[in-house]
Design goal:
Layout (H helix, E strand, L loop, with lengths): L1 H6 L13 H18 L1 E5 L5 E5 L5 E9 L2 E9 L4
Antiparallel strand pairs: 1-2, 3-4
Protein name: Amphi-Trp domain-containing protein
Keywords: Coiled coil
Pfam families: Amphi-Trp (PF20068)
Amino acid sequence: MFGQERLEQTELYKREEEQEIQEAAAELERLAAALRNSGSFEFFKDDGMRVQTHMPSRVTMNSEYVQKKSEHSVRLTFSWMEQ
């Protein structure tokens, strides 16, 4: 079942870049404001294409802090079912 779910997965957007902590915080604030004000958010891919999603009023939010030796990571994930 897990393999089938991966086959049906479509990655619409993924980005990784080093930023100053102030830039990362500003990006999180922009996302939070968009969700609070319109229930949607958008990203612009490197090729200029816009990716936009609308979220329902109730979502599941997962937060995770992981440390592997000297590497630390924080992940925030929002999930919901299409209605």
